[in-house]
Amino acid sequence: MLNKRRGMRVVALLRTPEAKEAVDRALAGVAGIAAETTMGSLAAVGPALGGAQPPSLTLVDVDLDDDAEMNALAAMIAGGAGMVVVTSARASLPGMRRLMRLGITDLLPQPIQAPDVLSAVQAAIDAARGKIAGRGAAEGVAIGLLKAGGGAGTTTLAVQAACALGHGADPAGICVLDLDPQFGAAALHLDLPQRVSMLDLLADPERLDASMLRSSAARHKSGVDLLAAPPGVQRIDGVAPEDAAALVRIAREEYRLVLVDLPLAWTAWTRAALTACDAVAVVLRLDVPSVHHARRQLETLAEEGLDHIPVALIANRVER
Predict the structure, then answer these.
(1) Per-residue pLDDT tens for 205-260?
(2) What is the pTM of this model?
């Protein structure tokens, strides 16, 4: 449920009547929020968006392939626009990389859905109150990846996404945490040695810090860092929940993007690791068993009290 904050001003610049109607409908009647929605392009509106005083949250529809719009977005953020949420009908990979470097607050998919709007506003409220687990403004983003059954290709997507997002940007700012102590295979995918594993790092949690994480991670030729899983099958219940959460938080403080590859099984420590993530991606195949398991993952997230974390469903191995 959306926490309310008196006097919160939300300004939205959208391109289509459908998007404007969706945002108006989502925020209508929410106590303590004054929403102002208009239609137009960011390149045309420019610095005038929001007026003299920056709003609490700005939602803007941006063409990620339009240099003029991306430059206008960069200027708006650099000018102290506060929290900026972007929505785009064409979320291309180069455009996503540029958004990550700009440091936007969130990205909403289209067509815009009311729950996504409310989640973005909730994140802005929490950030304004400083309630995101002590998180600072310079910290990165952690995304937990859940498998909808075996063979969904979750690890493949994690390592390929890390290498793709690191290309042409700052690859040293990206880390993959392979937290599957039994069947983790990220090191195999990246052809990296498994000298130090996540269990080795968590064996002495009092010494765990950003420096230890950096020195323990294996560096891929792309520049991406990997904290590997152990080379053999280990007990899955041998990790303390507080240590797993601390590992993700430290990684988020050290890197701008952390991809957390989790095991299929649910444990107390995997739940704790997810609480330290900013978003969850559930990876599935488009077949009946995988869709069934994806639904069970979503139900488990709700049962574990994690349904406040934004969730994305990723259908893998889909032919056009």
Answers:
(1) 788 888 888 888 888 888 889 999 988 888 888 888 999 999 999 999 888 899 99
(2) 0.59
Instruction: Please provide the DSSP assignment of the chain as one string.
Output: -PPP-TTEEEEEEESSHHHHHHHHHHHTT-TTEEEEEEES-HHHHGGGTT-SSPPSEEEEE--TT-HHHHHHHHHHHHTT--EEEEE-S---HHHHHHHHHHT-SEEE-SS--HHHHHHHHHHHHHHHHT-STT--TT--EEEEEEESSTTS-HHHHHHHHHHHHHTTS-GGGEEEEE--TTT--HHHHHT---SSBHHHHHTSGGG--HHHHHHHSEEPTTS-EEEBPPSS---TT-S-HHHHHHHHHHHHHH-SEEEEE--SS--HHHHHHHHT-SEEEEEEESSHHHHHHHHHHHHHHHHTT-TTS-EEEEEES---
